[in-house]
Amino acid sequence: MREKRIRKKTLMIGMIMMGLLAALAVLAPLICSCDPLEQDLYNVLKAPGSSGHLLGTDQLGRDILARLLYAGRTDLAVMVLAEIIPFFTGTFLGMVSGYFGGRAEWVITLVTDTFIAFPYYLLVIVVAFATGAGIHGIFITFMLVGWLVYARVARGVTSSLRRSEWVEAAKIMGYSDLRILVTEVFPNVLPQAVVVLMTDMAALLVSIVTLGYLGIGITPPTPDWGMMISEGQSFVTTAWWLSVLPGLMVVYTGIALSLLGDGLADFWRRDSV
Description:
Blueprint lengths: L1 H25 L1 H4 L32 H37 L1 H15 L3 H12 L3 H11 L2 H14 L3 H8 L4 H38 L10 H8 L8 H32 L1
Helix pairs in contact: 1-3, 1-11, 3-4, 3-6, 3-7, 3-9, 4-7, 5-6, 7-9, 8-9, 9-10, 9-11, 10-11
């Protein structure tokens, strides 16, 4: 009973944390009236709590709170949108390879194993350099490599289900392979894929922030947590909040996604028992 309550709390805490983060991003214009791009060179490097600037200002006099909120808007939107196509593409390809086996499974397995053999961040950086900095480069990068993890998970689950009684029954009833994949296999693959989605979104956010830190991610003047960390490192001893605050936002988001993923995994595992 106690374990059940802990599982439920994990899911609830994750949902609340992600809900709060989403609300801050969506309601950014209402929460802070400052323009995140507006410079005030007479009020540079103001400490948190300064008049008119709750979290202080940066080296150009820009309001930190506004930049944090609008950077969250950008980074979270890119994180979610960049996962949509890889999620469905990888899940579909994984189900196809696991269901049909044979040549389809061999080809998809070969491709995924080839990509996975390369260091992840090296591959991301190389593709980002090739496609150019900016949001479009990030989308192209993760559409190329982001589907791999979903394909592997979906293939494993589908391979274990293709000889199950309900799949065989659906074949006997004359269901097409596509209908079996959609109505019988996909509902069983989806919980595993969603749990992986939460973990992969956290990894994707770290990648987005890393690319921004390296200067090959989201381009200025659009606020970005990675860029804020990079810009603030020169002032880390005199204005620690410039790098620490966006770093804390990244950590908070990662914890929220991890709790949400663990909570969903426990919820579905409990229902399957």
